[in-house]
Specification:
It contains eight helices and no strands. It is mainly α. GO terms for molecular function: protein dimerization activity.
Length: about 180
């Protein structure tokens, strides 16, 4: 006795056998794609889990200076203490309290502008710990160029590995995930 699907009027046994045949032929490609996706996900986790060194940049957000003047951000100072152990945090706190209380610093637009203001006003020695932290924070964006180089080399490996087994849209999607 043959059973029929009520929607398509095709025998149920033939549908099951054709879909299982399709699955058998897609298994190697699917397995490779899953492995590549797992590798990409692991890379993303590794690259973006360590970003604590960027948090202290919030100490120099000029739009928050007024808030910091009233309630000093001790949590951010603790983050500096953990990520930059060579910094004298007690001196840094004193310097930041002065920066937050002086309105001429409110007009600066970001860490680089504050560093340039220190240079122009000849305050490098006076605010030595702030200058040290600002120099570190201003050089951090240079690391992103290395990151992009790494992404392109990963793309090259993915394309070489999967060249014969995937179409352009899947390759583009994997590239976007990688980047």
């Amino acid at each position: 006795k043959v059973r029929y699907n009520t929607v398509t009027a095709i025998p149920v046994d033939s549908v099951a056998s054709s879909s299982s045949k399709r699955r058998r032929t897609e298994d190697p490609k699917r397995q490779i794609a899953l492995e590549v996706c797992d590798i990409i996900m692991a890379e993303i986790r590794d690259r973006f889990t360590f970003n604590n060194h960027l948090i202290p940049a919030q100490l120099f957000y000029t739009e928050k200076f007024f808030l910091y003047k009233n309630a000093f951000p001790e949590i951010l100072l603790d983050c500096v203490r953990r990520n930059y152990p060579t910094t004298n945090t007690s001196k840094l706190k004193s310097e930041l309290e002065v920066i937050y209380s002086r309105e001429e610093f409110y007009e600066s637009a970001g860490a680089l502008a504050i560093l340039q203001l220190f240079m122009n006003m000849n305050l490098l020695e006076t605010f030595s710990e702030s200058v040290k932290l600002l120099k570190i924070l201003c050089t951090l964006p240079m690391m992103t160029t290395v990151e992009s180089e790494r992404c392109f080399s990963t793309l090259k490996r993915v394309k070489t590995f999967m060249r014969n087994t995937m179409g352009q849209s899947r390759l583009s999607s994997l590239a976007m995930l990688c980047v």
